[in-house]
Amino acid sequence: MSAFDGAMVALVADPNMAIAVEWRAAAGAEWRPLRVLFSAPSDPVAALPGLGARATSLEAVLRVADLAPDTPRRGDLLRRLSPAETWRIEEVEPDPLGLTLRLTLARAP
Fold this sequence. Notes:
Structural class: mainly beta
Mean pLDDT: 87
Order of helices and strands: HEEEEEEEE
């Protein structure tokens, strides 16, 4: 295990950093438990530079090893049970080492 992977194991296990969610493939497979780190980065809106407007998104980072051999794809679902909320995966971006995935999420109906 690399130092980076060891750090991710510690972050995902920390109840103050990561939260419990469930993942399900769009094909309708079973829900699988998972722990992820959420973030909500924001970027300036280029069309409104003087107003200080920012666009935010919701992202989740997870360890690839926690879902192996499966890999989340666009259209899959991620849900938190408490408080209940479900998101659709819009983008999946692996890190350069292939240890984690960054998921861009959108609220699912």
